[in-house]
Amino acid sequence: MAHRLERLNSLIRHELSDLLLREVKDPRLSVMISITQVDIAADLKYAKVFVSALGGEDEKDKVLKSLDSASGFMRGELSRNLRLRYTPELDFQWDNSIEHGAHILELLDQVKQEYQS
Length: 117
What we know:
55% of the residues lie in helices and 19% in strands. It has helices spanning 2-22, 60-82, 97-116; strands at 33-40, 46-53, 89-94. Strand 1 and strand 2 (46-53) form a beta hairpin. The N and C termini lie far apart (53 Å).
């Protein structure tokens, strides 16, 4: 079952990315948005969708609100494209992993500079 969930997570992530790129015409989503991960529940009824945007934390509230308002449309499109028995409800959440990784790289650069001095 775990392998099926992994494939479904990947498939939903791909479909949502494609929908954001081609179908969603919300002017509030003018920044570059990345769907970094999808985590679907075992009963296939709920999915956490982790997103990140190019603007970072400044864009967080605006992006999440606009994605929540478009979630019904996206869920309907997922239903048409994937033909699942249950189309999961989408819960968009902010993914801080990119900012966290950048912060770790900055810290490593500082350590490197101190070591070389």
